[in-house]
Amino acid sequence: MRLNGYDYSQAGAYFVTICTHSRECVLGDVVDGKMRLNEAGNIALDCWNDLANHYKAIDLDEFVVMPNHVHGIIVIVNPGKVQGFSPQRAGYKPATTSVGTLPEVVRGFKTFSARRINQARNRTGQPVWQRNYYERVIRDEKTLAAVREYIVDNPAKWAEDRDNPKNSSARLR
Fold this sequence. Notes:
Layout: E1 12-19, E2 28-31, E3 34-37, H1 39-54, E4 58-65, E5 69-76, E6 82-84, E7 95-97, H2 102-121, E8 134-138, H3 141-153, H4 168-171
Antiparallel strand pairs: 1-5, 1-8, 2-3, 4-5, 6-7
Helix pairs in contact: 1-2
């Protein structure tokens, strides 16, 4: 998944896709081309929006919650100066950490959101997200604009999306 030898703590914009465990549609539904978040989807959105409060070295750009995945752009703006949360205390008190990598921020999102989603579903300890995630380094303004458009348009294109369970044969290609 990661670029071999690439330093994911360096300043830059990163497009990430994080899928739910077994690609289950647990975050809401697309109705008439618009995403309708359920409680779990709202928790995912809240946790994403809160990331910049936990990781001072990042800015957040476009983001969308889909029924079984999320797409977002994370911009690392001040590498090496990150305030995050330790896994043991996630969501409670800030702990200083020198880790400001993209994987650390994604891990934080998955940890914070999974705990809250499981609490809401009364399913403590159950997997919410797939183990890994997809990422792409955004290298220029043209690509950034295209990725933003892709994210914004994603709900309207759900009927054709290969992550839509109704299109499961498309995933086998």
